[in-house]
Automatic annotation (TrEMBL):
Cross-referenced PANTHER family: SUGAR-1-PHOSPHATE GUANYL TRANSFERASE
Keyword annotations of the record: GTP-binding, Nucleotide-binding, Nucleotidyltransferase, Transferase
Function of the protein: Regulatory subunit of the GMPPA-GMPPB mannose-1-phosphate guanylyltransferase complex; reduces the catalytic activity of GMPPB when part of the complex. Mediates allosteric feedback inhibition of GMPPB catalytic activity upon binding GDP-alpha-D-mannose. Together with GMPPB regulates GDP-alpha-D-mannose levels. One of two paralogs (gmppaa and gmppab) that may have redundant functions.
Matching Gene3D superfamilies: Hexapeptide repeat proteins, Spore Coat Polysaccharide Biosynthesis Protein SpsA, Chain A
UniProt-listed PROSITE patterns: HEXAPEP_TRANSFERASES (PS00101)
Protein name: GDP-mannose pyrophosphorylase Aa
SUPFAM superfamilies: Nucleotide-diphospho-sugar transferases
Amino acid sequence: MLKAVILIGGPQKGTRFRPLSFEVPKPLFPVAGVPMLQHHIEACVKVPNLKEILLIGFYQPNEELNRFLFNAQQEFKMSIRYLQEFAALGTGGGIYHFRDQILSGSPEAFFVLNADVCSAFPLTEMLNFQKEHGEPSSFVILGTTANRKQSMNYGCIVENEQTNEVLHYVEKPSTFVSDIINCGIYLFNPEIFQHIGAVFQKNQQDMLLEEPTNGWQRAEAIRLEQDIFTALAGQGKLYVYKTLSFWSQIKSAGSAIYASRLYLNQYHTTHSERLAPNKEGGPKITGNVYIHPTANIDPTAVLGPNVSIGTGVTIGAGVRVRESIILHGANLQDQCCVLNSIVGWDSTIGKWARVEGTPSDPNPNDPFAKIDSETLFRDGKLTPSITILGCNVTIPSEVIILNSIVLPHKDLNRGFKNQIIL
Ligand SMILES: Nc1nc2c(ncn2[C@@H]2O[C@H](COP(=O)(O)OP(=O)(O)O[C@H]3O[C@H](CO)[C@@H](O)[C@H](O)[C@@H]3O)[C@@H](O)[C@H]2O)c(=O)[nH]1
């Protein structure tokens, strides 16, 4: 029997996702029409003999999360539970804290997935790879190739090219180590807890020797990457399965638009029913577009490529939307234009208004380029990025909003360019 754990972090995480993460926990933000986490769950339920999915994080249980869990259990007919850490215990501390829950029912192996990645999740391939490579109790990291410069933003893996054993692991190195990076998707077996447990014991002993502080939590805060992988590298225990399929991190709101594009494209093979067709009396669709069945769209609107339209959205005559996510309840009035933007829940864009951002796509000429999840400011200036309207924002008619972030509940009375509107 197999299980899967999804590390969903908590409210202090996902800061680059503000103001969108004010309204909904980042792992539930819709990407290609469904909550980010649902893509992980859909991949897990396809794995034969996978019996339970555990979400581990430090969010207070909340209505959205409960509703999501309830719906997902119903839809996928699988046990999907949320386990709340008492504090941020790190990527290794959380699974160690809940080891009894993970091991109940005696799974022979379990996946651990970072929630903030978008991937084709080649989980069955990882299982097969594990059977063919290394010793029976070895662990597998999913890896992909990045370019030299960007690789340093990730965990970097040096492998034995014949055996794929991980010989050396460095988390976010300051100089180049390897262009194979950690995708944040792992296959473990119960033995991993011995390794995490040894780090926990050592942390505890170290703390006894230190001056007393209120650092009692520190022994439990364990990072898989720095504390476990670095030590396991070169021990014949850790292997890397390199994937050629799509993969990206979802850190910033801009990367959610990019991730949407990747998932919409995958829908051709996995969920063709989620892709809007061009049909008589409907809007003109170019490329891949997701439209929730409750959205009300004027037939003269032109949508796509890479557009996701949420529940109850209204789109008026002559509206143009491209490379954007329109969240539920938004109202795009006649002839407005939305490009490279995220329009927040229940926002209204007036007639003939133009809401536009700058895409932060990876360099299309570099096959290994990843999306740069830029910080908001560079050299004291706001980095040009996608435009984000928080929830319940009103944009008046006939204005331009360019490369701006508008915080929730703002009623703007003019156009803005390169600004954060508080
Ligand atoms: N439950 C729980 N989850 C956590 C915690 N801290 C982080 N997470 C979750 O663990 C994942 C990793 O988060 P970060 O710690 O922010 O790491 P990162 O910068 O994303 O880097 C990791 O992922 C990269 C791939 O996306 C890797 O390349 C890198 O090596 C590392 O594993 C995210 O899904 C985050 O929500 C925690 O204390 N508790």
